[in-house]
Amino acid sequence: MSRHQYDLVQCMKQTGPNVGLVCSQCDGKCPVCDSLVKPTTKVRLCSECSFGHLAKKCILCGNGYDEGVAAYYCLECVRSEKDREGCPRIINVGSSRSDMIFNKRRNEKKA
Hints:
Distance between the termini: 36 Å
Strand content: 5-15%
Shape: elongated
Low-confidence stretches: none
């Protein structure tokens, strides 16, 4: 979860055996702190976030991908046990992204 976007909400349910996948743009980022340093432990997802329409989407940005890459927690998040808090998938859309979508639809209606 990005430090600079406080309106994003994580799932935080109990994790299962399924590994979280990210797109090529988010490859190497820690899902908790956005660090690109020392990937250590694979990200695990809850059963709801790993099946259905969410299965082929990046756990950080929500974009689709062809071939997903496993997501990893950084060493500092593992040491501080943030990897045990729950499922890290972002379940809502940030306010800046929703504003962009709203403005785009409004502009389409005018044209």
